[in-house]
User: Fold these one by one.
Assistant:
Number 1:
Amino acid sequence: MQKSPNHRLADRVLWALGRASLQSQRLVRQHMLEAGVRTQHYHVMASLDGDGEAAQATLADRIGLDRSDLVNVLDELEEVGYVARRVDPGDRRRKIVAITAAGRKQLVAMDRLIYAAEDELLAPLTAAERKVLLGLLSRVSGE
């Protein structure tokens, strides 16, 4: 990512956060691409693992993915055995999606890719600085 020290907002926190966010997203995509996986796969499986199984429409809303795009992602994940879909017995028009044991194993591997991207992003910082940064960002985001 090209530096913009002369940008009119270069001295503003929002500008720096935005640049750091873009860099972190680029690094995550790069690490995932090199491993042959996609960030959309991660978002789907992490949501299913963390929030539980869900109807396809609910899952799409949870992760902010267009419903028709989600169908394609689910097809890919189901093909490799990372998720399973079943008909909702309460409404036969709906499909319920759940993560499989293989999906959970893959999710752990993808977590490691994210950790590697984070380590690369934060390489200039000491462990203490990383802890302070995380604390400050958590406070700002209200978490």
Number 2:
Amino acid sequence: MGETEYRNVRLTEDAYQRLKMRKQEGESFSDTVARIAGERSLLDLAGILSDDEADAMRDAIREREEQSRDRLDRLSDEMDS
């Protein structure tokens, strides 16, 4: 394996604290930066669904929310009885 190169990076105190909060146990700061830099952005998902697929997904989510609300209302009514 080749020799590892190191770079110095200047961070504001705020940026350092935010990075430190994202650091997982046993992880170096380099590991943390590599993990975060490899994360996907929600923008990467733009255009992944057709308009019809997106509409169907929205409808399914709305239906599930209504079912959840109905269930909570029934449970609340049962508790009040």
Number 3:
Amino acid sequence: MNEELEQVEIKVSYLEAQVAELNEVVIEQQKNIDAMNIKLLQVTKKLEELIEEVGSPSRPNRKPPHY
């Protein structure tokens, strides 16, 4: 019975280590997601500014440079 208990304790120890490692991965992924969300907001804002600028009536219609 003692040996079985020792085996269970060893398995629990390994599982605890795996959970801690997976937790670190999740934390790092969340940091990456947060950074990407900030970048997405910046790009979205810039795109909206460009759309407003292009749609502005004060800006003359010009042909693209390849014409």
